[in-house]
Amino acid sequence: MQLCLDDDLWNALHAQARKEGTTVSDLVRQAARERYLGKLEERGEAMQAFAGIRKDRCDLSGSIRYVRRLRHGRRIPKSLS
Question: What are the extents of the domains in the chain?
Fold first, then answer.
């Protein structure tokens, strides 16, 4: 893969890579990962933390019955059908 960078950006990346003892390619990969995958990783962590949060609720007798109770009845009111 080839990436075209303007001189200012190349110089800044090159100086930062030298400072960190890494490569420009590594800096670009890291920046792209943080920008485009970081949010996905954060969402995944949030979902893991959220999973099971309501498992100890005693007012819900079971998810299947709860959903069926919510869905009970006609979807379209008689006045509209």
Answer: 7-80
